[in-house]
Structure formats: structure tokens, C-alpha cells
Fold these 3 entries.
Entry 1:
Amino acid sequence: MTSAAELRGHYDVTDVPSIVRGSVLLGLLESVIVLVFSVVSRYLDGPIETILLALILLAGLAAVTLLPGIWTQARTIEGIAGAAGIGLGAAFLFLLVDVVLLQNIGTYTNRWWQIGGSTWWYHPVWWMVGTFLPWQGAWILANQAERTGRVSAVAAFGTAVVFALVAAVAAVLVGFPGAGWNLPTFGVAFLPGLALATGLSVLGTRRS
């Protein structure tokens, strides 16, 4: 029986082995990024810590947002949904690694407890965000391909970052609860920033 992925040729690669493989790769990558982030957060301080954490955060956001859509070669809702599926599978794999390993090796600081009261509070947040980011990222890539015939991960991520910075500054200026001139504010602002970038990417596309 011919699969839908085979019928689509070289795009919308959503066969089960590809989704599982992508989920495992992305989940392991997320685990490494969180481990490095926690080590830097524990053992460094001052401007060096902030700079390194910012670079790690940007790298992590870019990977989770764009890699699934690149792997599925998203062009239609099939590939976009496949990218979201990779994100969801990766989130569950990361949470397994987190519970079994990362929470037990002593790199997490008490900041986790200060934020949520435990190291479990972020688990439902992680799988929701871990699915939302690839979904939106694949949507942007698909819209780029529809509009110009090619995709640009740099342009997609750069647009999302610009919108995130605008959202973060706006949140601070209007006194949004918890907002400040810091990385957590940018991290949260990346979510509406990415949504705005997705909305912008729709302009100029023709969807039947």
C-alpha cells in the first residue's frame, strides 16, 4: 500500500518511522540543551552567564521551532501536523530523560523551586510549548515555500525574534506582571512573537 508521504514525493514526509526518528533526535537535543543551560546557570554568574544563557536559549528555540518542519519538509497541513507531532514526541522523551536523569544529577539550581515550588511544574508547560513551537515554525516554512518556492530558516527565526523583542519591550513598558529586562521575559515573549511571525508569513500566499 502506497503511503501518503510517498505520494507527495519529496515533501510532507510524515511516515511513522520519520516522525519517531525526528522525535527521538529532537528530544535528545532538548535534553542536551537543558543540561548545558543548567550547568551554565549553576556555575557561572554575571554578564558571562547572561550572554551564554542567551545564546543557548536562542539555539534551543531555533532548533525546536524549525527542525521538525525542515525534517518533514512541510508544505501542506500534513507536513505541518507532522512537525507538531515530532515536537510532542520530543517533549515526552525529554520529560522522561528529565525525570530519570536531569533532576537527579545536581545541576538544577533552587531557581526552579523559587519559580514553581517544585521541578514538576514545567512538565505540562513543556509539552504544550514543545508542540506549539514546531507547529508554528513549520507553518512559516510552508508559507515561505508557497510564496517564493523556497524556505529560509534564518528569515523565519529572525522574524520571530524581532516580534518577540517587540512583545517583550511592550510587556515591560505596560507593566505586565512578572515582565522585566531579562531572558525569562524574552522566552515567554517568543510565543506571541512566533505567532505574529506566522501571521505575517501568511501574507502573499494563496491557499485553496
Entry 2:
Amino acid sequence: MSDINVTPLVDVMLVLLVIFIITAPLMASSIRLDLPQTPAARPSESARAVTLVVDKTGVVFMDDIALASPALLKRLQEVARLHADTEVQLRADSAVPYGRMVEIIGLAQQAGLNRVGFVADGPPALPAADR
């Protein structure tokens, strides 16, 4: 009798599936933000965009890498050199001071990127019973 026992294969595949399900949400972004909320929030239709994340302490992240102002300016200049019409999308915590946001926008404009968008959350969804 020459049967192939697939039970170990199925066990391994199920374990890999569970690991993938648990780790997939962690791959998106590891920076915790409390975005401001507005009922007017809607997704951008921009084809080219670079996202800058500013946490509540004012640290700027690009591609989940913390950058100081000179390094950020250099990276933004590289993006502007490749595509001058790229939009800068700012995802900033609601506790970030206005002055820090102005500094970041100034760096983007200094790099040659003039399209700046602010990312906000929409209002929380109401439960079906409250509608």
C-alpha cells in the first residue's frame, strides 16, 4: 500500500496561514497616530504621493524611517527630481504643534513639492441601531 500521508502538510500549511493572518496587519505601519477627525475627510485621487507621518512628539517618518530635517529635505528633493507633481500627504497626530507642521511644509516646498494634502479620519461610523 503506497499512500501519501498529507496530514503533516495540511498541519504546516494551517500554521503558516495563522502566522500570516496575525502578522499581516503589523506590516502596514507601526506608527501610532491619533488623526484629527472631520466629516469632510475623503481619500485623495492623486496618482503619485509620498506620505509623511508626524507622531505626537514631532518626529517625521517617511517609509516608517525617522528622519531629521536635513535627511528629510534630501529625500524629498530626490522625489521631486523624479516626479515634480508628486503630492505630499501629511499624516500628523492631532497633538502636533502648528509650528512643526509649517516647518515640514516648508521643507517640502524647499524641495520643490508644492502639492500638500492633510490626511484626516472621517467621523466614527454609527452603529446600525443609531441610524
Entry 3:
Amino acid sequence: MAIAIDPAERGERARKIFEEGYNCCQAVLLAFADVLEQGGAVSEELLKTLGAGFGGGFGRMREVCGAFSACTMVAGFIRPATTPGAEERKANYALVQELAETFKERNGGSIVCGELLGLRERRPDGPEPSARTAEYYRKRPCSEIVRNAATLLAEKMKEAA
């Protein structure tokens, strides 16, 4: 039995997971846990583990956005490149580049966390996660970026089905 993929619902699911306290990468991955678990290759716990270090643009270093990192990971499930062959890799890389362009269009022109947050200098903020308060959510676009990333992935999954 195939799982229905509603892009708006997946986006909202990811936003809610992020606002429960998971990082941006984990939230996007977990929004698709049911789909990714189908083949038995991953579990929800593995997705949480894999995504743990990608929050805040790789451990709060403000590099590549964790939500986009999740898009890149899931691209491997949409267009797998599991052998050394160039054709699989080419298809996967083409999808990643397409995801990047659409992600940029929907999120202010970048895939870089520091740029998305409007930080002039991309410097590490230290390892201590920010407190998730109402002020945190008010001043950061992260909830919307996470929602957009999951919506985009769901659209690509529907196209590939």
C-alpha cells in the first residue's frame, strides 16, 4: 500500500515537528519517516540520529541549511545512486541541483543558514542550542523554511511516483 503524499500536509507536519524542538534537518526528515521506513532501510530513530548534527547549518556553524541538507538526503531515496555508475549519480545530482534552485526561490535566494538568517558573518554560534521561545520563533524564518523544504520534497516525491 502506497502512502499518500500531500505536499501541504507534509510541510505543516515538518513545521510542527520543528516547533516541538527538533532541529531543522530532523524535522524535515521526520516529516517523511513513514515513507522512508516503508522499505525497511531506515527507522524514525535513525532519521533523528542522522539529522542531529545538521541543525543550525552544520552544528550551528551557519553553513548549509539543515532543512536543505535533509532535502539532499531524501534525494537519495527519490533518485538513488547506490552504485558507482555515473548515470545514477548524474540523475541524483540533477535532482539535488533542482531542489537547490527551488529551495532558493522559496526561501530568500540561498541554501546557507547564515544568509537565510540575515547574519552578516557566517561564524559558529557555539554549540549551545538556542532556547525555543516565542521570541525565537518570531525572529527567525526557520519554521517557514522547514515547511517549505518538506513541501518541496513532497512535490518531488509525487512527481517521481
